[in-house]
Each structure stands twice: as C-alpha cells, then as structure tokens.
Write a structure and sequence with these properties.
5-stranded mixed beta sheet; disordered N terminus
C-alpha cells in the first residue's frame, strides 16, 4: 500500500493560501492535494478557531494523503466507451433494460424473474456489482425480491456507500507515518506511548476506535464538529465574547469556505464521510485535543481513499 503522489503535514496556517474551485474535466491527485491543503491553510477563515485559548491558543495540524489499494469493498466501474451488448444470462424471460444514457440492453431472466436475478444477469454484462444497481419500473425502485412482470425496466447505478470506519482504520494502519503526522500525534495523545512498530499492535489500537462517529460529509456537520471545540472552550470561560453571543454560529465567510470544500470532496469522491474520533475534546496531561477526518473513495480510482486529517490542540 502506498501514499500515492502527494502528502503533506501542515504545522501552521498560511495567510496567503489561495482559493481553489472545482475545475471542469478530470481532477488530478495534485489538484486534490492542493485544494485540501489550501482549505486547511486559509488562516483568515479559521481565525475564530485559532483564537480559542486556554493556556495557549488553538493550533491546527492537518495532513492530506492517498491510501492506494485500501481495504474497502471492491467496486467495478462500467467502461463508458463500451456499448452495452445483447447477451443471454440464461434461458428465460426476455427483458429490455433501459439506461439513463439512452442505451438499451437485452437480457433473458430465468424464472421466477425477480429483481435479484435481473441484477445477477446485468453484473457481468455491465461490470457493475448488484449492490450498486437499481431497477426502476415507472417511478418506483423495486426491491430484490419483487418479480418483474413487464417487458422493460429502467436501470439506475447507485453510488457506493460511505466508507465504514473500520475499513478506514484497517487501511490507515499500513501507512508509513511520520512523527509530524496527525495519526502519529493522535496515537501519542490517546495512549501516551510511541507509535507501535508492529502493525498488529497499531491495528489493535486503531480498531478500538471503530465506533467513532461516521456521517456524510456536509457543511452543517463540519460546523457542528467545530462547535464542539468552541463550546468546550466556552465552558472554561475563555471563549471569545463574539462567540459566546453567537453560540453555534459561524461567520458567513467560514461557512462558504466549508461549503466549497465539502462540494469539492463530493465532486471527486464517492459518498465522502466525516469521521470524528471523540464526542468531545480529549484531555491528556496538559493538552486538549480533538481529531477528525474527511474520507472519500476517489471516483477516478475507486480502490483509493483520499483522506484529510485534522487535530485541534491547545494547552490547558
């Protein structure tokens, strides 16, 4: 397993980080890396987080990396350049399957002509796993056990589901972590120990967090996660007055900043998710820390994960 082309750790915010927009056409790994790093480095937008202070002000460390050959369920993407062919799945009912693109596939479905059997016939023909297929009649998607009584159906390809937290953690442990990386810092604060050399020990620790929060990556949930950090500091009586007056709200420029990056992740990844390690900031000795991840399966490389890690920290 490798990290792909680009990986970086950010120890401080960059005042001059530029804005990045979703481009037309293909998105390269370099563009993804630059865009996610720019998001983390845009100091003016993060200023209300950076100003939260206990014994010290908040620091934000973020890194971006690619996990190739991730330990996630395999999917096969249909090749757009290949026209659907007419093939027989077996002897049975003749069925016309209409794609949203307008292309048509003719198959024969054995009795009792269920949706599950239709999907089984289409899987080798289209290269799309059955669990990513939807069979539509009229305006209704049919369940697998339903019988197909008509002569034609419509076909819908679903996006793969969000990455499971356990699959992410199993993939993560094979990365060559450096002491400056978020995962290295997270392990140190969580265990007060050095990162294990043995992958089995690292995996055991990682899987102890398999029940971390895992929700679709969207603007409101990212802001909700950051509000946890703001609120925890407010309880200590050091929350800036402007945020005590507007608890749970964010300057419009920051909301736009978050909306841009969540839209970008959805554009280049299947079903990106927000994984949050702790329900509240984690106290360790003199430190208070909060760890979360943006994780998505690359559309262009479905067995590759793109990950942006964050750790918020201040001394108490």
């Amino acid at each position: 397993m490798s990290t792909g082309q680009a990986r970086a750790s950010l120890g401080s915010m960059d005042e001059t980080a530029r804005s990045s927009w979703i481009p037309e056409g293909d998105i390269t790994r370099d563009h993804i890396w630059d865009t996610l790093n720019d998001f983390a480095r845009a100091a003016p937008q993060w200023q209300h987080i950076l100003e939260i202070e206990l014994a010290t002000k908040t620091s934000i460390v973020s890194d971006v990396y690619f996990i190739d050959d991730a330990k996630i369920p395999a999917i096969t993407v249909a090749r757009q350049e290949e026209a659907p062919r007419t093939e027989e799945c077996s002897e049975g009912k003749q069925l016309t399957v209409e794609m949203l693109s307008g292309k048509v596939v003719q198959i024969k479905v054995p009795a009792p002509h269920t949706v599950a059997q239709v999907k089984q016939c289409l899987e080798p023909l289209l290269g799309i796993p059955a669990f990513l297929q939807g069979i539509i009649v009229g305006a209704e998607e049919l369940p697998d056990e339903a019988a197909v009584t008509g002569e034609s159906v419509a076909f819908l390809q679903r996006e793969p589901p969000m990455i499971e937290a356990e699959d992410f953690l199993r993939s993560m442990v094979n990365m060559p972590w450096e002491p400056t990386d978020v995962v290295h810092k997270w392990h140190a604060s969580d265990t007060d120990k050095k990162l294990p050399i043995l992958k089995s020990e690292l995996l055991e620790w990682a899987l102890s967090h398999r029940n971390m929060q895992n929700v679709p990556l969207c603007t409101d949930d990212v802001l909700r996660v950051l509000d946890v950090w703001l609120d925890a500091n407010a309880k200590a009586g050091t929350h800036p007055e402007i945020f005590r007056e507007h608890a749970g709200t964010h300057p419009e420029i920051f909301r736009e900043h978050v909306e841009k990056i969540t839209a970008f992740m959805r554009h280049c990844c299947y079903s990106p998710s927000l994984l949050v390690v702790y329900n509240e900031p984690y106290g360790h000795d003199d430190d208070l820390e909060y760890v979360f991840f943006f994780v998505g399966r690359l559309r262009s490389e479905p067995q590759t994960l793109v990950v942006q890690s964050f750790i918020l920290n201040c001394w108490v």
